[in-house]
Amino acid sequence: MATTSSNSIAIVTGASRGIGKAITLHLLSKNVSVVGLARSASALEIVSEEAGKLQTSAKLIPVAGDVTDESVQQQAVDLATQNGTLIALVNNAAITEPFALIADAAVDDWKKQFDVNLFAPLSLIKKSLPQLRQSRGKVINLTSAIFKTPTKNQAGYSGSKAAISYMTQTLALEEPDITAIAVHPGIVDTDMVATFYTNARDAEPEREISGRIIGNLALFAEHELTGAYVEYDEPKLSKYAE
Fold first, then answer.
1. Whose CA is closest to 76, among 21, 117, 124?
2. Catalytic residues
3. Sorted alphabetically, which InterPro entries does this protein's record hold (predicted)?
4. Which CATH class is domain 8-240?
């Protein structure tokens, strides 16, 4: 797919590793600067070093902090606004724990899970909406197919992903000037997923493919997809794999 204007900028959460890193590097390769939000400043520095090897005028603008902290969220949005035209928000950051039966799980742990997986994305969307309306931009919310089938020990995680998928549909209905999509990225090579699936370490090429498709959706998704839940390997997304 084509490159974009060097004035274009996206926000990516969880940008320092796994699928978030793959998305970030792909966006940079398409000449789109990225405000990358992650907890670890040193991990973001590694991404910056890799980005420096790309043939692009785009830049990574790191924001180290807790994605649930509204001041950190506002910093990310302000930096995007100051450095270009915000065209996309990719809500990737998520946590899977606690792994526990409903009878055993601590409610406070579930609250933390929803804070990261649902309320932080919701807050970032609200803060980004004025810019995204103006640019007719994209909101890409990473979700999971797990919410479609009940799974023991995963009520919290599955519930948070069901909620963000439904919220994406509602956002699409309420905001006709943006394109909002919920994307299941597959079983990719990340520390989070490796906790979940013992074979995830064999999935590194899938991470790169998934990152490329999600990055291209953030840039080029057709408005007809707004409100959709999609899985990255669906045939209708094949053109976004380029």
1. 124
2. 157
3. NAD(P)-bd_dom_sf, Sc_DH/Rdtase_CS, SDR, SDR_fam
4. alpha beta
